[in-house]
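Hi support team,

I've been running sequence recovery on a batch of backbones for a student project. Most finish fine, but this one hangs at about 90% for roughly twenty minutes before it completes. I'm not sure whether the input is malformed or the queue is just slow. I've pasted the structure tokens below so you can try to reproduce it. Let me know if you need the job ID as well.

Thanks,
M.K.
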């Protein structure tokens, strides 16, 4: 081989090696200067919405002591027909609320904990008799609303599915011209999930996509941080982070997810540092999502026509 081609080859290889070395060094420096957790390395965090355990408890509206009774009221929408299991769950929750607040409440003479719930008309849902005045029963092993051990995680399932994106399904050819109904009104929600949503303060009949997503994240033990961009979150569980953007719908809004929203979601997911990304929308999806999902397996779209399958994938009776 002639000397000049050999020299040119060595020169090119040397340049490539030098370039790769510089890029690796620069990346290492950025990693050293950056936060050390996936959540911290994502978009600007406004606040922690809830952690993996405290997020699984019913929202408390008020609590106080009246004579020998401790009254705990939950901000929970009750169904039109009585649900005894939901009421029992709220009584257990009331006991745990008192346990947490016992050092700031005069409970020495208390003999009964009374649980109340409802929006609009609030009513008593049950009572717990204490073993002795001021003495609480032993803690319940699995208190709160958790589905981690009884149902499939709906946020992990879409990324586990092997989807043939050459087949275009789950997308409407034309979005309807009329206003859409509330998302919850179109869903067949299993009784167990309906109960869990209500216990967390979410009305399944009127919930939008964002409310539904946050409630499910709570049930499945995610730690969630709200991000700077409205309705966007970073969810952390088992060392895996998921960037989630939610989009609601109001009468008069376009019924289909816009390309601008999709581009924003993809850009924010890319800069978030999360392991996977999910856009959850109460609107219908355009056909372009299939190409995006096929090209980017770490991205999933859970749009209006896919939400029912998202819920069914939990395999919850």
């Amino acid at each position: 081989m002639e000397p000049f081609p050999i020299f040119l080859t060595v020169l090119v290889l040397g340049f490539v090696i030098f370039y790769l070395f510089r890029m690796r060094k620069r990346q290492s420096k950025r990693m050293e200067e950056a936060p050390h957790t996936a959540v911290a390395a994502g978009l600007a965090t406004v606040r922690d919405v809830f952690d993996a355990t405290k997020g699984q408890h019913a929202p408390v509206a008020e609590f106080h002591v009246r004579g020998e009774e401790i009254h705990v009221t939950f901000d929970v929408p009750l169904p039109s027909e009585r649900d005894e299991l939901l009421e029992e769950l709220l009584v257990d929750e009331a006991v745990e609320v008192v346990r947490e607040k016992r050092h700031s409440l005069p409970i020495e003479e208390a003999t009964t904990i009374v649980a109340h719930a409802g929006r609009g008309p609030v009513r008593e849902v049950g009572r717990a008799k204490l073993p002795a005045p001021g003495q609480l029963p032993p803690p319940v092993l699995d208190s709160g609303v958790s589905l981690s051990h009884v149902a499939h995680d709906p946020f992990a399932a879409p990324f586990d599915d092997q989807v043939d994106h050459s087949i275009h399904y789950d997308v409407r050819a034309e979005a309807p011209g009329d206003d859409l109904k509330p998302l919850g009104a179109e869903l067949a929600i299993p009784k167990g999930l309906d109960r869990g949503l209500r216990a967390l303060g979410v009305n399944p009949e009127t919930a939008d996509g964002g409310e539904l997503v946050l409630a499910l994240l709570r049930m499945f033990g995610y730690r969630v941080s709200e991000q700077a961009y409205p309705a966007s979150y970073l969810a952390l569980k088992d060392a895996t982070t998921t960037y989630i953007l939610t989009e609601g719908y109001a009468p008069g809004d376009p019924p289909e997810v816009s390309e601008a929203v999709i581009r924003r979601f993809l850009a924010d997911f890319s800069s978030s540092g999360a392991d996977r990304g999910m856009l959850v929308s109460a609107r219908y999806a355009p056909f372009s999502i299939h190409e995006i999902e096929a090209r980017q397996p770490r991205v999933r779209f859970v749009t209006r026509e896919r939400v029912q399958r998202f819920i069914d994938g939990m395999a919850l009776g």
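--
Follow-up from support: It reproduced on our side and the slowdown came from queue contention, not your input. The radius of gyration is 25 Å. No action needed from you.
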